Every structure is written in C-alpha cells, then in structure tokens.
Amino acid sequence: MWRENSVDLKLNRFYEMSARAVLSLLIIAILLAIVAGVGCTLYDLRLVFNQEFHGAFKQIMVDLLTVLAIIEVLRTALAYSTEGRVKVTYIIDTVIVTVLTEVMAFWYKEIDWQEVAMTISLVLSLALIRIVAVRFSPAGSRKEL
C-alpha cells in the first residue's frame, strides 16, 4: 500500500514537472509570437503611405486583432500555470476576439446575409456562455461558502 502511494506520488510529481516545462516553452513561444506580431504590425504601417488608406487600415486592423487574440492565448497559458486549470472565460474571450477579426474582414468584402446572421448568433451565444461561466464559476461558488 505504501509503495503504491510512493509510485503514484512520483508519477504525479513527474507529470507536474513535465507539464510546467512544456508550459514554460509554450509561454516563451507565445511571447515571441506577440513580439513578431507587433513587429509585423509596425512594418505594415508603411502601407499607409504606399497603398490606399482603406486597404492599409484593413491590414493593420487585422494584424492588431490577431495580436490581441494571441495575448488572450497567453492569458490562458498563464492562468493554467498559476492556477492549474484553464479558465473558460479566457478561452471564450480568445474566440470572441478571433470572431471579431472575421467580422472586421466582413466590412471589406461582400457577404451573404446568412453568414452575417451566423456570425451574430455565434457572438451572441459566446457572450451568453461567458455570462453563464462567470455566474456559475467554481471560484464564485467557493466565495459563497
């Protein structure tokens, strides 16, 4: 019995150390992606002088929203490293930012009303899920106790 607990404890410790190592590498990769995204956005500022404003601002806006989505992924990774669990609200925020990037792209192309309706329903359902996740959060129920 004692030997089984010792093996379980060692396996659990190995898993935690491995997960932390992989998560640290992931966080470094995400930070590098953010730096690259900011650099790409700054580089695309040259488009304001070389192209029409409409196309240049579209590219810059998409770059910025992409960097914001990556920042949300970083928030999720950092929350997992500190709390040991993934917060659903961070994942939903990431998806909402990504969907809003697509909505911004809708401004620059002609789309069917069905696609607009599906996108609106997706954003509304994500907002509803986020409200429910915050309302019935495990951290919130622990505070009530």
Automatic annotation (TrEMBL):
Top-rank taxon, per record: Bacteria
Q: What parts of the sequence cross the membrane?
A: 21-45, 57-78, 90-108, 114-133
Q: What Pfam families has UniProt attached to this entry?
A: PsiE
UniProt keyword annotations, A-Z: Cell membrane, Membrane, Transmembrane, Transmembrane helix
Q: How does it sit in the membrane?
A: Multi-pass membrane protein
Question: Where does it localize?
Answer: Cell membrane
Q: What is this protein called?
A: Phosphate-starvation-inducible PsiE family protein
Task: Give a yes or no for keyword Nucleus in this entry.
Answer: no
